[in-house]
Structures are given as structure tokens and as C-alpha cells.
Task: structure prediction
Amino acid sequence: MTAPRQEGNGRRPGIALIALFAGLGMLSGLPRAVHAATTERVVANRFSGLAIEGFDPVAYFADAKAEIGREEFEASEAGVVWRFCNEGNRAAFVAHPDIYGPQFGGYDPVDVARGVAVAGNPNFWLVTGQRLYLFSREQARDAFAADSARILRIAKLRWPRLRQTLGR
Result:
């Protein structure tokens, strides 16, 4: 029986290229795709541990826009790290996380009403009835805006059971 024939210097260039690209991906500072956990009671990035992708939940109320929080203004609540644009927003959240935190833990209320937990996207949001809601997609936000009372009624009925299925 003869040994398998090896080409050239015996190296396996396919494996080397895979290893090189994998290493570059791990070491680079390039932004990666964001993945939100759907097994947690509060939507958090499974890689960074940041709630709602590091967006400042108070800024939706105070500035009426989605703003990324800063590392120097963080607080821990509900097992995740929240970021804020400034100390005032951080203090407001710490004093009233139930008011400033997104409803349904940051899950899309339209999907919660359907009985499924789909992470909301901090860029698709509404403040309605002095509460913050995040949506997985623009169409869900628009559907919610058109019939929020009905969707909220159903979502509030389904949320307790759905919440029990999420991780602790």
C-alpha cells in the first residue's frame, strides 16, 4: 500500500486559508453582525451582553431618537448591561427601570401578540402611552401604530406565559 500523494511542499493551502480568515475575523475591529438572544427575558447581544445593542433607553424619551450609549455610563439591571449617553440618563434609568426599559423585555409586541419572542431592533421603535416598544421590523412598527390598543391587549395576555419559556 502506498501513501497518499502530496503535492508541492506537503502543505494544505485550503486549511491554511480557512485558518487565516478565521483568525482575521476574530482579531479585527470590524463590526460584526449583531445577534440578539431570544432565550433571555431581556433582549441582549449574546456576544457583548449589552441590552438593546447598547442603545440608551432613556434617549428615546428625552431626545425622541435612538442613540448609542457610552461605555463610561453603564448600569446593570435585569442581568444585562445598559448603556447611556450621559449620567443624567443613567440616573433616570436606575431610579425607574420599569418606566424607561423597553416593554416586553425588548421583544417585538406584534410578535409577542402572536405568541413568539422575536428580538426588537432598537432602530424600529415607538413611545406610546409613556412606554418604549421595540420592533423587529419596520412593518411591525407600522402595524402596531395603526392598532396599538388591540395588539397590546393580546400581547399583555400572552406575555406572562411566553416570558416563562425564556431563560432566567
